[in-house]
Amino acid sequence: MSTSTGKPTFHAAMFPFLAMGHLTPFLHLSNKLAEKGNKISYICPPKTISKLESMNLYPNLITFVPLGLPHIDGLPHGAETFSDVSPSLAHLLMLAFFDSRKHVESILIDLRPDFVFFDHAHWVPSFARQVGIKSVAFITSGAASTAYIIVPSRNIQNDDDKTRLSLMEPPPDFPPDSSLKLHAHEVEDAIPFWADKNEDSGGLTTHQLVIILSKDQFQELILGIERTGLPFLAALKPPAGFETVDEALPDGFKERVGGRGLVHGGWVQQPKILAHRSVRCFVSHCGFGSLSESLLNDVQLVLMPQLDDQYLTSRLLSGELKVAVEVERKRNESWFSKESICSAIKMVMDEDSKAGFEIKANHLSLKGLLSKQGVESSYIDNFISKLQEEINK
Fold first, then answer.
1. DSSP secondary structure string, 180-213?
2. Among 22, 91, 120, 363, which one carries the catalytic annotation?
3. 119 an active-site residue?
4. Options 84, 119, 308, 309, the catalytic residue
């Protein structure tokens, strides 16, 4: 297959994990590949397709392929992504994802793409190899966390004390004087990233995949936002043990906030919200997809990392690049205080804050670099060239 200019093109299948932080980046990549004339078959559940269709910029080249999830006892009818289930049912959706293997294999056999892009479906490469399809692992978290935690030089065998201690420092040959480091309490959260495997769920754990707050953590976050006195929209999943966010709100919260703020428990169109002129600050858990979207807009960034790669992404943006502020957490504290959350938000929102001014200036500079004409296209062109080389091998 080739474009009208005679340049060769390829057919790629996309099979992302069932979380919006994975589904959306896969579609962004699909758009970039389709822009160059390549054909994309995007595999995901039917109801989720309706959420993604508006972001498909090349419907003539990007085709959504419905994936039927198998029935799992206890999983609500129609649940397709982690935004559709409460934290207590997350493990059931994981089982449905990995039990869809036979259907995915059947789809791939019918499609016969040149490539299949995947992330958490660990079985894809061995199957794809058997039928002549090349596999590409597309990791939606930042490269910094991969380079820090799971590079071969780590030589991680188990979770003994020596390994825990080593994770507090960068691996050998890491850039000198890097601010990317883990604190002792963060190492404990990073360990499930590589040590606590569950074969029934493809080597992944619920802890690893679902960023779940306790009631106290949820309320501390909400109260911290309330203390700023600013209007807000908080899009959060219900905390552990609750089915809805309303059930978990602090006493008197709605009455105090009135029409100034809204806590929403479902999925939202985050890119559109971040691009809106009235939104000036984004408080993020440091999912890399969310931060990528925010860096291309003008919002001030406040970071609250909770798991493995999020800590390192936060250090990259707040320490190395200085385009964000990380909410302070004292060494003996297991969670952020409402006072520290409020303080970080007000600091970046204060027009007279020297630190806030510096962060905003650095952010605008990085945004200019990332959005500079031709920069992204050159990376995509090089990537496509590498893929073409793989086809020709």
1. ----HHHHHHHGGGTS---GGGTT--HHHH--PP
2. 22
3. yes
4. 119
